[in-house]
Design a protein that fits this description.
Helices cover 54% and strands 7% of the residues. The chain is built from 16 helices and five strands. The chain has helices spanning 2-10, 16-20, 23-30, 56-68, 90-98, 113-125, 132-150, 170-178, 182-190, 196-203, 209-215, 220-233, 239-250, 256-263, 278-281, 291-314, and strands spanning 34-38, 42-43, 74-78, 84-88, 103-108. The chain has a five-stranded mixed sheet with strand order 1-5-3-4-2. Helix 4 packs across helix 5 and helix 6 (113-125) runs antiparallel to helix 7.
């Protein structure tokens, strides 16, 4: 009798739900669904390299969200301690907040850190007007994630760190995906070595990309001295000057005085150069005037003034 009871207990009975459910319905249960998630439960992706600004484009997006809602769901992953972490959709989340919304439609997906990082970077690199600093940190984060994936033993990939089954290194794969050369990817990543103040000048186009790459080789204290000198003297280094500072830094001969001497020397393209602030002259021109039309008119007026002055001196 006891043996029969043990046998009955070991038999797993099929539930009514299992009995009448179809393979299609069971697959549907596993399929990802869009859920309305409270914004308060969604945290930003750690180290998110893309800036979410309340600029004009963001305000336009907020107006659209206010009228029509978020049309494309964000992508989040569940956090171990509760709530969700945004993977793709930081701008939509910000627009929802500005629009006064309390929830946002999102797809919930189980992702490990490297998978989430790659998706986060790829979803943002499609945007226009990406700042150099955003690209720099995004490339760095994605490359590190790709290297970890390449070095993780698995059926799909069991080769050395940084290289996949096709024999291509992660940086080459990233370059192909981004439409950049391998060298350019590495040059962008160099920008992450710049101090925040100098990197901001690169984003603001006050320092060109090529000189910025050279300056990234300067030590932190040297970069601080360079920034202070640029601020006090209202100037920035040319590519040749940046290359000289890099070489002097590597030789251990770069200091505040040398930086000052290099920055304050006259550059070839600065000889006999005069700058007029736009706000001083723009009010005199029609709004549809091009820069070339403004320049031509200024020269025409100066020529007229010069001829008039010459006639007066001849009297």
């Amino acid at each position: 009798m006891a043996a029969k009871d043990d046998m009955r207990a070991s038999i797993k009975l099929t539930t009514v739900a299992d009995l009448f459910s179809t393979e299609e319905s069971r697959a549907d249960e596993k399929r990802e669904k869009v859920l309305d998630i409270p914004l308060s439960e969604i945290s930003d992706f750690p180290g998110h390299p893309f800036k979410v600004k309340a600029d004009e484009a963001m305000l336009e997006m907020a107006d659209s969200v206010k009228q029509y809602g978020v049309l494309v769901p964000g992508l989040v992953r569940p956090k171990a301690d509760g709530g969700y972490e945004m993977v793709a959709g930081h701008r939509r989340k910000k627009a929802s907040e500005l629009a006064g919304r309390e929830t946002m439609p999102c797809i919930v997906r189980e992702l490990d850190d490297d998978q989430a990082t790659i998706i986060m970077v790829d979803s943002n690199l499609q945007r226009e007007n990406i700042a150099p600093s955003e690209k720099a940190f995004a490339y760095k984060m994605k490359l590190e994630a790709m290297k970890r994936q390449a070095g993780r033993p698995s059926k799909e990939n069991s080769t050395q760190v940084g290289q996949d089954l096709r024999g291509k290194y992660s940086v080459e794969i990233l370059a192909d995906q981004a439409g950049e050369s391998r060298n350019q990817i590495q040059r962008y990543i160099r920008l992450t070595e710049l101090t925040p103040f100098i990197l901001e000048m690169v984003d603001d186009k006050r320092i060109a990309f090529n000189p910025a790459v050279e300056l990234s080789y300067l030590a932190e204290e040297e970069q601080k001295a360079l920034y202070e000198t640029m601020q006090s003297e209202d100037c920035t280094p040319s590519l040749a000057q940046a290359q000289r500072m890099k070489k002097l830094s590597q030789d251990g001969r770069l200091n505040v005085d040398v930086i000052f001497s290099i920055l304050t020397e006259e550059k070839p393209n600065q000889k006999e150069k005069m700058t007029i602030r736009r706000e001083r002259i723009d009010r005199f021109f029609p709004r549809d005037f091009t820069e070339k039309q403004k320049e031509d008119l200024i020269v025409q007026l100066l020529e007229s003034w010069y001829k008039k002055r010459q006639r007066e001196q001849e009297r």
